[in-house]
Fold this sequence. Notes:
Blueprint: H1 2-21, E1 35-36, E2 49-50, E3 78-83, E4 97-103, E5 109-114, E6 120-126, E7 129-134, E8 142-147, E9 152-155, E10 160-165, E11 171-177, E12 185-186, H2 187-192, H3 200-207, H4 211-218
Antiparallel strand pairs: 1-2, 3-4, 4-11, 5-10, 5-12, 6-9, 6-11, 7-8, 7-10
Amino acid sequence: MKVIDFLVGFSFLVLAYSQFLVAFDPSPLQDFCVAINDTEVPVYVNGKFCKNPKYVTPEDFMFSGLNFPRNTSNQLGVNVTLLNVNQIPGLNTNGLSLARIDYSKYGGLNPPHYHPRAAEVLLVLTGKLYAGFVTTNPDHRLFSKILYPGDVIVFPFGLIHFQWNVGKTPALAIAALSSQNPGVITIANAIFGANPPIKPGVLTKAFHLDKIVVEYLQKQIWVNP
């Protein structure tokens, strides 16, 4: 009986572990798998097909121009330049992506959002940022700090986080994410900018807002960072 109990318990453990593994990018089984868009193969895969190694070049592993400032003259005062497998094919199967984040002075905001497939490490290069993340139900604990050049903060996998420029000058940060395709869901955009719109009654009750306010928010133009 004890053997049966052990096998049942072990089976559940293996199943749970396997579910954990498939939630992340697959481990590479070769030196590299440079991504190539092969439109001739009618099969959808979660990732990219590999270029023939004979035709791989150094350019497949690099990107130029991340040192240039980006335009932050938008509603949020922020510009996120994401470098994933689409910009650097050599990132394929390595479970990594990178982002340059420019913040305008006087309140540039990377609004509350989360990455469904990645954790994030943020390094502040210039400026002064108020940054933080919120834990899941039921606690909703806020972990936040004022960050200065050289400071690093971690945003755990899948948690809502944000950065806000609280300095008097433009700010710049570099983010590393633990997926070649981390994805991003900006909370306000997804809720009030859904297409087609979510029925106002749902948002009125969920956010304790008047229906007029909800309908007003749904008519706004929601900018993606």
